[in-house]
Amino acid sequence: MMSNRDIFGQTESDPPVLVCADLQCEYLAEGRKHLIADGELVMSRCRQLLALWRGNLWPIIHLKRIAQAAWFNPASNLTNWLPEFRPTPGELSFEHPLPSAYSSARFAEYMSNMRRIRCVLLGFSLDETILSTVVDGFHRSHRYQVIEDAVACRQACAGDAATYRLVVTGVIGNFAGVLDSADLSKACGRLVV
Questions:
Q1: Nearest to 191 by CA among 42, 4, 8, 2
Q2: Which of 6, 122, 113, 25 has its CA nearest to residue 73?
Q3: φ/ψ bin of 79: left (φ > 0), alpha (ψ from -120 to 50), beta (otherwise)
Q4: pLDDT tens for each residue of 84-142
Q5: What mean pLDDT is predicted for residues 168-177?
Q6: pLDDT-based confidence at 75, cuts 50/70/90?
Q7: How does the average pLDDT of the chain come out, rounded?
Q8: Beta bridge partners of residue 63, listed in sequence order
Q9: How far apart are CA 127 and CA 15, in angstroms?
Q10: CA 83 centroid distance within chain
């Protein structure tokens, strides 16, 4: 049986911060470069975890990509959060221009001021925002867990999307923990609320 120390490396009474990465309209818009094919499946897991965190009043951070590239127009409504993943009052949100959330000066400052923070990452742009944020965080001694069945990425090559996702998740495993949502839900059920 896994203990919270095994999964989170912390005490049972200290829930991790849920980080929702780039849950934006851009990633589900048909015909767009960043279209995510399995978005609905990933979104259902994201909904479950977000509801768990909100129901327990645990800390939540939302990340929003606002790149200045031609393919990601920040003036477009496609950069808006998906309606059901929009931050609610009391939840932090950070906009980042580059793939890493640490490209937001506010996010970098927030994270540097938090002691012993543990973050659980879910959302879109696995091969961009999630990967680069985890690597940047690793080099700052910040601890991340990526929920492998609650993350998605576009098909970046002509090959199999599932294989590509597996390779990216394997790389992330060198810098952060990789968990299944079922393991996380079991561990969260043991947290003292």
A1: 4
A2: 25
A3: alpha
A4: 999 999 999 999 999 999 999 999 999 999 878 889 999 988 889 999 999 999 999 99
A5: 94
A6: low
A7: 82
A8: 21, 94
A9: 26
A10: 17
- φ, ψ (nearest 5 deg) of residue 118: -125, 130
Amino acid in position 130: I
State the DSSP string of 32-88. -TT--TTHHHHHHHHHHHHHHHHHTT--EEEEEE---STTS-TTSGGGSBPGGGPPP
